[in-house]
Amino acid sequence: MMNRCKGCGVYLQTEHPSMLGYILKKENGLCNRCFRMRNYNEYQKVIQDNNDYISILKKINDTNDLVVLVVDLFLFHKNIEEISQYLHNDILLVLTKRDILPKKIDDQKLISYFQKMSFSFVDIEVVSSIKNYHFDSLFEKINIHKKSDFVYVVGYTNAGKSTLINQIIYHYSDKENLLTTSMMPSTTLDMLSISIHSELTIIDTPGLLIQNSLIDMVDEKILKKIMPKKELRPITYQVKGKQYIVVEDFLSIGAFDVNMTLYFSNSLSIKRFYQKPSDYCYQREIVVKKGEDLVIEGLGFLTITSDTVFTIDSKYDICIYTRKKFI
Ligand SMILES: Nc1nc2c(ncn2[C@@H]2O[C@H](COP(=O)(O)OP(=O)(O)O)[C@@H](O)[C@H]2O)c(=O)[nH]1
Ligand SMILES: [Mg+2]
Questions:
Q1: Confidence class of residue 26 from pLDDT cuts 50, 70 and 90?
Q2: Mutate to test the pocket of ligand 1, among 53, 96, 132, 163 (most ligand atoms within 8 A of CB)
Q3: Whole-model pTM over 0.85
Q4: What is the DSSP string of 92-128?
Q5: Which of 70, 91, 108, 191 could pair with 155 as two cysteines, CB 3.0-4.6 Å apart?
Q6: Contact 132, 163 (CB under 8 A)
Q7: Residues 127-143: tens digit of each pLDDT
Q8: 45 CA distance to ligand 2 middle (Å)
């Protein structure tokens, strides 16, 4: 049987150095891509096909095993129900990256938001893998709800699935190998089984790609700025007349007479202009009603105090939409 890379799950091969799965040193069990990502922070982009992931979900659906659906609290996708529609399995919903949202928000408020969605789950937990927040409780829930020795971890790419499994490996198993994680989408390439104890094997999966997310469009330098590393400090602007809030050199948010609060990474350079500073190729207008947020996929969201029409100009074809107010 062919071996899989211990970091990303790809089948290993020794014939073709330029192809995925190439392994130089058999001892470490890592493909060249994982080896370079871990040791040199070098990233090799892999285009994944969502149909491949849907096939994985269908395979999981053929089992009766527990599924852990990992959702990024900061950048969750509007269609998280999309994944559950392929699965009849019991789903334990895990809301991760809690450390990024402001501390003062009550966890129960976050939970209630997801409870109102149309899919049902056996339980729900709010965690942070970075801060090891609520991991004992999560691990207990996994052990209570599992139907067999196998538990699958699914979600969108970059949600934090592999980082979460690494925490479980670190705290609750005697294994030393950790999975490869990164801020880039599609780090994990195939299903990967990790035995935690004699009655629990966790299976990591690559994840569904979010279409038109900023994360897939920008270079590494900007990507590092987009992904917050610590608690967000929301920034409020009192816009009088027409003003433009410009993010780095790729996005301009035009607004008129409104109070708005931005939940974007604080590492980004954000400036206010009183005249439109530049034109970008993608332009659109979007109405946001009181009680809704405006989401800019991969960047974050903003809240408003009254109905407003935004004019958004961007260098990239980013998905922009409204959703029911989150926090
Ligand atoms: N702040 C924060 N970042 C996290 C957390 N979990 C994962 N990340 C980061 O999110 C990115 C994607 O994580 P990864 O586990 O590779 O996602 P996957 O594609 O779902 O497996 C990495 O940069 C992680 O460091 C968390 O709890 N808090
Ligand atoms: Mg992963």
A1: confident
A2: 163
A3: yes
A4: EEEEE-TTTS-TTS-HHHHHHHHHTSSS--SEEEE-B
A5: 70
A6: no
A7: 999 999 999 999 999 99
A8: 14
For a substitution probing ligand 1, which of 68, 74, 180, 181 has the most ligand atoms within 8 Å of its CB? 181
Task: Report the C-alpha gap between 311 and 282 in whole angstroms.
Answer: 11
Gyration radius from the chain CA atoms: 21
* Closest ligand by atom to 131 CA: 1
The number of C-alpha atoms within 13 Å of 220 and in the hemisphere containing its C-beta is 7
Structural domains of the chain in order of their starting residue, each with its CATH number = 1-44 (no CATH), 63-210 (3.40.50.300), 235-324 (no CATH)
For residues 128 and 160, is the Cβ–Cβ distance under 8 A? Answer: no
Q: State the Cα–Cα distance between residues 11 and 25, nearest whole angstrom.
A: 15
Q: What is the DSSP letter of 8?
A: T
Q: How many CA atoms lie within 13 A of 247 on its CB side?
A: 28
Pocket of ligand 1 from Cβ distances under 6 Å: 96-97, 99-100, 128-130, 155, 157-163, 181-183, 187-188, 207
The closest-lying atom of ligand 1 relative to the alpha carbon of residue 161 is 20
Mean pLDDT of all residues belonging to the chain: 93
Q: Which ligand is nearest the CA of 208, by number?
A: 1
**Do the strands 150-155 and 66-72 form a parallel or antiparallel pair, or are they unpaired?**
parallel
| Alpha helix stretches (DSSP H) within 123-276 | 135-145, 161-172, 220-226
pLDDT in tens, 51-102: 999 999 999 999 999 999 999 999 998 888 889 899 999 999 999 999 999 9
Cβ atoms of 228 and 263 closer than 8 Å: no
Residue whose tokens read 């780090």: 187
Q: Tell me how far CA of residue 115 lies from CA of 61, 92, 93, 127, 235, in angstroms.
A: 22, 12, 10, 16, 28
